[in-house]
Write a structure and sequence with these properties.
It is built from 6 helices and 11 strands. The chain has about 270 residues and is an alpha/beta fold. A hairpin with a 3-residue loop joins β2 and β3 (about 105).
Length: about 270
Amino acid sequence: MNPCESPRTKRGAKLFGLATTILIVCGLALAGPALADRNQCAPGGSESATPVPKDLSTIGGVGQDDNHTTPTVEPLSAVNVDALGLGTRGVLNVGTLSDAPPSICVDATGTFSGFDNQLLVAIAKKLGLQVRFASTDFSALLAQVASRRFDVGSSSVKATPARRRTVGFTNGYDFGYYALVVPPGSPIKNFSDLAEGQRIGVVQGTVEESYVVDDLHLQPVKYPGFATVYGSLKTQQRRLGGAGGVGGQSDEAGRPGGGGRECLHPG
């Protein structure tokens, strides 16, 4: 999901009204990456798809929490662009990531892409706005939107009551589940196999961090971004027993050569 308006200001209160979640406030943009050393968005389309976990529908409570609907969302046809309070007229400055495919990624030309960003570009086109992407860490993204450094944060952000007190959200447009990536040969097959003292890497500020602390009652090792946590798992720099993430974004780390094996668990 993507966060939108801030409760501290009504300037950008009426954002995009469709099934997306994009942070909106305002601010300045940073320079994006030059050329990518590889295409993080490949493969695309159906080739990047993975099966839904077999036990996804058997876990109690899945799909029952509706934190992803925002009653004040308006349809695109009703959005007044002049009332969005953008930092630069006609330009949507977007804070995004570069290391969370298939939702957010950088292609071989150095262009920010992925499902979330392509959806945002399509929305902006309908509103007659240009999009200016800038790379940042997820751990800083919500605060940067709240401080109006960015108009929007694009990063598959899950709407939670705590986050809604800081930034606004559009309606949800996707669903996900937690995933645990473990080193090859690990005896850990599921979250229930984790024990006290197990070192689990997470991205700081994510719902995965909250899940590890509040539900699993473990103290995670925190990282600023997805690339660093999965890279640390692969190289075993900090002797991680696993890395928590969202199913889909953690698929690449769980593939052969990715440094781990993915254990899926509905979230």
